[in-house]
Design a protein that fits this description.
This protein is about 35% helix and about 20% strand. The mean pLDDT is about 95. It has eleven helices and 15 strands. By secondary structure, the chain is of the alpha/beta class. Helix 3 packs parallel to helix 4, helix 6 (about 185-190) crosses helix 7 (about 205-220) and helix 10 (about 275-280) packs parallel to helix 11. It binds phosphoenolpyruvate (PEP) and manganese (II) ion.
């Protein structure tokens, strides 16, 4: 149950109530308390303090349509998604920041195409310890340089909570990777900032678990959460993962959070990314994240799936037509 407390309730009173009802408490304009979902009605005491009460079926509470019927709008600096915008944001860049020359080439591609968000990882969560794990702080600084030089917004991922503060400081949008989705150190820190957070679905995670991870950020007090489906593990081995478009439809129907799809990590091979990206945009989603590299063959991570710049130029132009056909706009 979500309880919007009356303006007259002090923080001290709210904290006592939250302890009594084993609830999360945060402030976002007014004080909001979130009880376990098994509580289905406000008792007499709670009613005294409550301005508004929302009953929910499961622990998908702040993220659910039972709470907010319309999708949340999230401001991404130069563009907004969700709400009534019908915007589908294009996010692109390499898997990892590898050098100034490489990330600058990607930044220039963004500027050329009117893409406002540059992506690249500085702290890479790799499957093998013997592979490139990112430039770390140096990578964050290069991204910040691109932001300042080209007026872009940058998104980069937190690998673990040891450098979460650093990433939160440097990034405009914080990405939580599929392998880090359950890291409570990261989730809690992301709940304490107001910067937008792109939460990727773990590849072995149910939709319920995925959205519950988002609840940790929302109930920490950060309303700017975006969900990202990036492929789940199935019995199929010909593709890297399986992009769960059924899951995306479910998220659209039952949650109030913007949804971005990532066809690059899902299929894992560049040949399939354009078709898959068009299918994603045709669903009416809030954004599409696509990995690009000036020379994918020599990429230090995810080499097989990154598009070269000409491939991305062609794809970007076709995505505009698909979006247009369903009343959306690529921004
Ligand atoms: C990435 O975006 O480069 C990445 C590592 O993605 P994921 O967390 O989805 O594997
Ligand atoms: Mn990658």
């Amino acid at each position: 149950m979500i309880v919007h407390l009356k303006k007259s309730v002090s923080l001290e009173e709210a904290e006592k109530l939250a302890a009594k009802y084993k609830s999360a408490l945060f402030e976002n304009g007014s004080l909001v308390m979130v009880t376990p979902s098994k509580l289905k009605a406000a008792d007499e005491e709670l009613q005294k303090y409550a301005e508004q009460v929302f009953v929910t079926d499961t622990d998908i509470q702040l993220a659910g349509k039972q709470y907010l019927k319309t999708k949340r709008e999230v401001n991404l600096g130069k563009v907004a998604i969700g709400g009534n915008t019908n915007n589908c944001v294009a996010i692109t860049g390499p898997c990892s920041v590898e050098s100034e020359e490489q990330i600058e080439a990607a930044a220039k591609l963004c500027v050329e195409l009117g893409v406002t968000i540059l992506r690249a990882g500085a702290y890479k969560p790799r499957t093998s310890p013997y592979t490139f794990r990112g430039l770390g702080l140096e990578g964050l600084k290069l991204l910040a340089k691109m932001r300042d030089k080209y007026g872009l917004q940058v998104i980069t991922e937190v690998r673990d909570s040891t450098h979460a503060d650093e990433v939160i400081e440097y990034a405009d949008i914080i990405q939580i990777g599929a392998k880090s989705m359950y890291d409570h150190g990261i989730l809690n820190k992301c709940g304490k900032t107001k910067k937008p957070v792109l939460l990727k679905r773990g590849f072995g995670t149910t939709l319920q678990e995925f959205v519950q991870a988002a609840e940790f950020i929302l109930s920490g007090g950060n309303p700017n959460v975006i969900l990202c489906e990036r492929g789940i593990r199935t019995f199929e081995t010909k593709t890297r993962f399986t992009l769960d478009l059924c899951g995306a439809a479910w998220l659209k129907e039952y949650t109030n959070l913007p949804i971005i799809l990532d066809p690059s990590h899902a299929i894992g091979y560049a040949y399939g990314v354009p078709d898959l990206a068009r299918a994603c945009v045709a669903m009416g989603i809030d954004g599409v994240l696509i990995e690009t590299h000036p020379n994918p063959k020599v990429a230090l991570s995810d080499a097989d799936q990154q598009l070269n710049f000409d491939e991305y130029r062609a794809l970007h132009s076709s995505l505009k037509k698909v979006a247009d056909a369903i009343g959306y706009k690529i921004v």
